Amino acid sequence: MIVRGYALDLYCENAHELRGTGYDGDVHDYNEFPATYVGETRQECVKAARKNGWIINIKAGTCICPKCNNKKMK
User: Fold this and answer.
1) Where in the sequence is the domain holding 55, given as residue range(s)?
2) How many domains does the structure of the chain reveal?
3) Torsion angle in degrees (nearest 10) through CA of 27, 28, 34, 38
4) Is 32 helix (H, G, I), strand (E, B) or coil?
5) 63 burial class (0-12, 13-18, 19+ CB within 10 angstroms)?
6) Above 50 in pLDDT, residue 24?
7) What are the start-end ranges of the E strands in 1-51?
8) Mean pLDDT value across residues 12-30
9) Which one of 5, 28, 44, 61 is most buried, counting C-beta atoms within 10 A?
10) How many CA atoms lie within 13 A of 13 on its CB side?
């Protein structure tokens, strides 16, 4: 049997609680991350995340969540 799949866990670059500077309750919830997208390929997961408002820079390895991007989740 051949099984394949891809899971993409996203963390916002603006999430101060992830950088060790303390919890910033103004923008992000305490347990908001990771946002997980599942599909057969990485491109399928990235496409779904971008559709929900994530800004993803694959080359730099960074991403910005829909809250910080001022886009609403679909």
Assistant:
1) 6-64
2) 1
3) -60
4) coil
5) buried
6) no
7) 6-10, 35-39
8) 59
9) 28
10) 10
